[in-house]
Amino acid sequence: MRYHILHDTMLRAAFMVVMLSVAAPLTSIPGEAYAARAAGNVQRHPKKYVDKYLMARQRHARLAKAGLPAVSALALCGANYYKDSYSFDGKGIDSIIRRSNANVPDEVIEAYRRHITAWARHYKLPPLLVASVIHVESRFIETAYYVGNYGPMQVNLTVHRERLKALGIAVEELKTIEQGIHAGCDILRECIVGSGGDYTRALTWYNGAMNPHYAASVLQMYAFGKSAAQKN
After folding, report:
1. pLDDT of 93-117, one tens digit each?
2. Nearest to residue 12, comparing CAs of 69, 77, 90, 78?
3. Strands 145-146 and 155-156: what pairing?
4. Which among 73, 62, 65, 78 is positioned nearest to 31, based on CA atoms?
């Protein structure tokens, strides 16, 4: 037990040292990269996205003026990931899936658990947050389709066509558990980095600001998943 606690503490410390050593100032993030790759959403809601961007830049400029340490949005995102992932229990994902859709077969639950965990850790995301997004987006029906949105994380083909090409993901693969989660995690990671680690803002961006209750619904399931994981 002592070894695991010491190992956990050392990993956390090493991770934060690395993240802080390579972090760019907050004033250089968010906005440009996110806005460039989310042009479709920006075009649909220009004022909303520009306002969010300007508010974030002003907040980060105030931090820099106050002489506070320069910590990048990437580091903030990483800190949230490590805070959640080391207490993560795979049963939390199972609990979210069973609550979301009681008809998902056990072998499909196992596939979701495996790919959620793998891609969430690849992108340094909390696995339970990814599972919660899937709950709201598709109720764990990997073949789900709605008005140009595909797969378990409902990736919009029009907005993210170039992203999918860069990731090497074909359109039909979006309706598979593995590649649907891969694409969704790539988008979600960018949203969290662009929001400075603010999950509510990041989830609103992920949804394209189309549903005012979207972020709250995801975070409610996220809280349930963490509670379930702690009980098991």
Report:
1. 999 999 999 999 999 999 999 999 9
2. 78
3. unpaired
4. 73
Structure tokens at 154: 């409902």
DSSP 173: G
Q: Give the tens place of pLDDT for each residue, 173-198.
A: 999 999 999 999 999 999 999 999 99
Q: How many helices, marked H, and strands, marked E, lie in the chain?
A: 12, 3
Q: Which long-range contacts does 57-61 make (Cβ < 8 Å, 24+ apart)?
A: 57/27, 57/31, 60/25, 60/26, 60/27, 60/196, 61/27
Name the residue with tokens 């997004």: 133
Considering only CA atoms, which of 166, 77, 180 is closest in space to residue 133? 180
Residue 115 near residue 178 (C-beta atoms within 8 A): yes
pLDDT band at 135 (very low <50, low <70, confident <90, very high): very high
Instruction: List, in order of start, the domains of the chain with CATH numbers.
Output: 2-75 (no CATH), 89-231 (1.10.530.10)
